[in-house]
Specification:
Structural class: alpha/beta
Helix content: 25-40%
Number of helices: 6
Number of strands: 7
Largest sheet: 7 strands, mixed
Shape: elongated
Amino acid sequence: MRLILASASPRRLALLGQIGVVPDAVDPADCDETPRKAELPPVYAARVAAEKAAVVAARHPGALILSGDTVVAAGRRILPKAESADEARACLALLSGRRHRVLSAITLIDGQGLARHRLSTNIVTFKPLDQSEVDRYIASEEWRGKAGGYAIQGKAAGLIRAIQGSHSAIMGLPLYETRALLKAAGYPLD
């Protein structure tokens, strides 16, 4: 049973390794990840994960395809994957001293084309951030390409007062849900 990870994320690959899963191949999907007008964050995360899986499944018939998408949401607002220091600063200013949701959606398509979906909803609370903390974090470059402009597995961990939910989901792959989907599809797990 071949398993294809439909993601270029090194974090997702490392997280799979934590549960003893090594995909046979990594084949990132190239999908338009633009949110649709008025699309709510949970719907967006689930849609993008499903679309990524479908694109890669078409390239690997008969294989298990695992995809994911992680979204940082402040209310109904989907925060971007920060690509500039200004964008990361704007995200951190919005998140400073408040709670927000991190939604991690996964899709697993089995060898017969049956798609299974899971969504992990988590709450992250940042401490109130002062300018020097933001400046040091921006200088780290760790935020680059990260949803909401931060990476919980790095320096940002010291800025987070509390989390409710799954740490692995906040990093990008909810391991409990992933393991359950793989097991349900008959994938051999230790």
